[in-house]
Structures are given as C-alpha cells and as structure tokens.
Amino acid sequence: MVEMEDRLMRCFSAVFPALTAEQIRASSPEFLSAWDSLTAVTLAAVLDEEFGLQINPADLPDPATFEAVQNHIRTHRASS
Amino acid sequence: MNLIEALTIINQSAPDDAGTLEAFLACGFTPLHLQTFLAAHLRQRSPQRKVQVKTGLFGDLAGNIERLHGANSELLFVVIEWRDLDPRLGIRDLGGWRTEDLPDIVGTLKRALSRLEKALWRASASIPTYVCLPTLPLPPLFVTPTYQAGGYELQLRQSVASFAESVSRESSVRILNAQLLAELSPPSARLDVRSELTAGFPYRLPHASVIAELLATLAQNPTPKKGLITDLDDTLWAGILGEVGTEGVSWNLDQHSHVHGLYQQFLSSLASAGVLIAVASKNDRTLVEQVFERKDLLISKENVYPFEVHWGRKSESAGRILKTWNIGAEDVVFIDDSPMEVAEVKAVFPGMECIVFPTNDYQAIWDLTKRLRDLFGKSVISEEDAIRQQSIRSAEVLRESMDVSGGSLDEFLQNADAVVRFTFGKQPGDGRAFELINKTNQFNLNGKRLSDAAWMSYLSDPATFLMTVTYEDKYGPLGKIAALLGKLQGKLIRVDSWVMSCRAFSRRIEHQSLAQLFEKFDAEEICFDYHATPRNGPLQEFFVGLLGAPLPAASGLGFLKADFLEKCQSLHQRVEVVSG
Predict the structure, then answer these.
(1) Do A14 and B33 touch (CB under 8 A)?
(2) Of A38, A45, A58, the CB nearest to B205
(3) Per-residue pLDDT tens over the stretch A17-76
(4) What dotted CATH number matches B227-376?
(5) Could you state, in order of their start, the residue ranges of all structural domains in chain B?
(6) What ipTM was predicted for this assembly?
(7) Among B361, B261, B331, which residue's Cα sits nearest to residue B501?
(8) Contact between chains at B4 and A49 (C-beta distance less than 8 A)
(9) Chain A closest CA to B93's CA: distance in Å?
(10) Residue among B37, B196, B198 with most chain A CBs within 10 A, to mutate
(11) Domains of chain A, residue spans
C-alpha cells in the first residue's frame, strides 16, 4: 500500500511540480488553484502510464484530489 | 521516455544565468503531451538552457506558421496530420466520407499543402524548420477494403510526398524520416481514438515521445564523423588473405560472403560523400595491392588513403592515419573483426569510435551500416567533400617532397601558382561555411559552435559580414577552406568566428585573409574574439608569430594594420575578390 502511495505521489508531483507532498496530500488551496482541465488530462495520462488505468479525464473527480484518486485506484483494483 | 520522466526533466531547474531556448511547435491538434515531450528532449540536449516550447491555435496549422513571422523562436517544429489538410481526413469532424466527397478531399488537400508550402518557405527563411509528415493512419473512408490501396488514397500520399520533396530543397528545412519513425513507433500503435475525441490530442504517449525525440535529434544535427579506418581480412572481405590468396578472399552470394560486398559498397558510398577511408591491416602489402587490383572489388583503391599494411600494432597504424588526415581521434571510426585489435586501438585513442565488425551475423552487419550512416550522415554533399581525399594526398606528397628536397616554404609557395578567392556575401544556405565553423578544431578562433538558429540570426544582422576563402594551386583545388564572421564598426573590424581547414595549413592563407580584410574594409584595426581551447594550437601559433610574443592570458586580442603589415610574411598567391 505504501508503495502505491509513493507511486501516486510521484504522479502528482510530476503534474504539480511547484507543490510539496503535504500540499498535495491535504488538497491545499495551492493545489485547488493549480487544478484545471489541462492538469486533469495530464494527470489522467500519467496515471494511465504508471498504473495502466484507462481513465477518461472527464471521469476524474473535479478536482481530483490525492485521496479521491487513491480511492479510485483501490476500487479499480478490487473490481479487476 | 515516458510522460512522468518528461515532466520531471522539464521541471528541473536550470542555472540562474541560463539563457532560454525558445521553440515553436506548430500543429493543428491540442499539443498537450507532444509539447511536454518535445520540451523534455530539447532540454536533455541543451541542459544548460531553459526550454520554452510555444504553440498556436487549435485547428489552424498553416495559420500558426504564417503568424510566426518576426517571432523570437529559434526553432520551428511543424507536425502535420491528415486532418490539417482536410478535416474529413480526421475523426473529430463529421464532414462526410461519401464516395462523391473523395475527389473534393483530394482537391482540398492539395490546396492545403500549397498554402503550407508557402508558409514554410517564408518561415524557414528566418528560422530553421523541422517537419513531421502525417503519421496517423488514414480513416477508412475509401471504398476499397483496408488491405487494398485505392486510387484516392494513393493520390493523397503522392501529394504529401511531392510536397515533402519540394520543401526539403530548402536548406533550412529538414524532414523527419518516416521509415525510422515506423521502426520506432509501429503505425498500428499511434492513434489514440479516445484521447483524440475527448481532448483533441490524437497520439498515444509512446508515439508522441518518439516524434518528439526524433524532431529534437533532427534539430540537434550532430557533427558527422570525418574518417573511417577499416581492417581487411574477415572485414572488407571474407577470408584470411595470407592463407587463401588473392583470389581466395570473397564477397559474393556463392561463397556466403555477400555481406562483405555490402560493406564494401557502403564504404564506397561514404567515400563518394567525402568521408575519408583508410586501411589498417596486419597483412602482406603486395597481396593487398593485388586484391585492390581485382575488378570485382566494390571500393576503388583511389577511395582509400592511406594504406597502413604491415605487422605492427593497429594503434600505431591509426596514429599515422590520423596524422596524415590531420584530424582528431574523436572524428574517426575504427572497424575491425578482432575484439582484441579494437580494444587495443580504443585503449590508445579513447575518443575514437571503435566497432567490432560482426563477421558472421548478417542482421548485425545490416544494423552496422545504419549506425555508420548515422555517424557519417550529412544533409548535403559539398564540392569540398568531393575533393577532400585528393587534397590530402596532394598535401602528403608536398610534405614528402619538401622533406626530401629540403626546400623552403617560400620557395614552394612562389612556385605553387596559388589562387585564393575571397567571397563576401551572407548566404544562410552556405552549408560549407556553416559546416567549417561547426567542425573545425585546430585553426579555430574560439571553438564556438553555432546552431542553425544562431547562424541564421547572425547573418540576418545588417552589421555583420561573412568572408569565405577558396584555394587552388597547381597541385589541385582545396575548395572552400575557411570562413570568417565579423562586424564592421567604422575603421574597426570585430572578428567573432574564424576557422580554416587543416588541409590548408602552411600556405599563408591566414595571412592573406587578414590582409584582405584590412584592404576590403579599409580598416585600421582588427579585434578578435579569441579564446584558447585545448585544440586550437595552430591558431595560437599563428597569432604568436604575428605578435612576436606569447599570447595574453585573457581572451581577446587585436592588431593594428601597420603592425600586421610589418610582421606579415611574404605572400605569393594571386587574389580574387567576389562580392556576394
């Protein structure tokens, strides 16, 4: 589980290079203001690459917080 | 490179004083990850610079290029897809795939290509331009089954091919090779239908990464190697000459040695493109000479110089060849079937590219020819390429005759019937001058290299000039052997770049060049942006000779006209001056 969190944080950090892990994990105001449709597309592509998940960017929560994406991956893994 | 790696690379901080490499990516789709990959690959190739990749409007490829005029971009990348040429050739627009639409689609595509061609001509006049032709599969709009190529489809492909051939004639336009792209990114794994429909980005990530990597490589334009040293037995031919004799060595299908014929043919191709070819072989010289008399050998003995054939160490042979060619080890490839010989040469010349010839591995030999093409590949073949080996032979003959006769340089120059032609004109398409500046090491003012963009930018400055020098004497032409970039400021000339081929040493062409500069511009002083480099010893010696004193430790130096004329040695060439 820790490994999955690390990989997920790597994805978020690549898409939000200006934010710290704390800011990402806590869905801080900085995270919320950095979130837009372009980051949604980029995050979906990065998640696809890292976890093999075919996520439609439009299906991501808006905003797709660290916790929400983590739950999404858990649910996907449980169902597959 | 995957997307996370690309994002990590572009997010790395650059040095505070780093300049910015600004590129423009022209495409008709949402640039998204292609923009990211391109920035990352450019950054990898220019780690000391920040990279900014700008893009234009969605769905307006030609307009994006047309509006670029006057922009600050150093590089222009153009990525064309079928839907840029007619939206009906994509899947985002529902304009109709009826049979009666097909002639109109062909017509629309031709008009779009014509507009694109004009836009590229205009843009590439000021910005080096790199073009990727359509990479995605055409949609199934034709009446033929997908395994059959129909007439309309072939017309579309022919139109694109004609367009590409036409724009590739511009010296500042380079086209990405579709064959290599297909090897690295199979056509069936390129289109991402969901991404195209949901985000307007049509590429799967690996395909976008490969396009970006190849475009960045195309723009990087690595300096080609200059010479190749080859072994003979079980390399240039199959068999050990000393054991099987002159008629026993082979390179044909009957004796299963055809790959050696391919290698010979490839070396002959390299030689015809101006690459120096030499032989280093532990062999009997008489027998080798006999094989090179065989009519079926695919590389002529005239294409090979020098021959180092004896029983001494290969590294000694390589050293003598480098001396004869007067180039550095890092400009040369050494090929031998013996891993031990390759290791011995590599130990003495670590900078040399040393390759084991894969004698019995057909596929590996095929791969070797492709690798060699990349190492020696160049965009255009110049006149100088055609005469390079001949002039090296002449220089060697001259050196030997002067050594034997003990004649003075003055005596030789007086009798050489030399003609030096100076050309003043700024042609961005002067590939030879650009090549000299980026390849020459020994007689090089400061070792600075210029990118395509920097070259075009320098020449577009009204205050600058380019002087090129062509030389010929009774021993043969040397071609265009020197280039000098500078600025005129009243009676002062500032020289920013000055290079001369090592083939032209010892003819006082450098003295004549400065004399002509003073005369042409009626200047009183020349200042040089001089920097010592590990390899520009010959240039330093020239300056020391003129100054009559050691060079200053700091960079930069200059001469007054009166001082130069006092120190200048006697010049015996006939001079021609051409204003371009």
Answers:
(1) no
(2) A45
(3) 888 988 888 877 887 888 888 888 999 999 989 888 887 887 777 778 888 888 888 877
(4) 3.40.50.1000
(5) 3-220, 227-376, 398-579
(6) 0.84
(7) B331
(8) yes
(9) 20
(10) B198
(11) 2-79
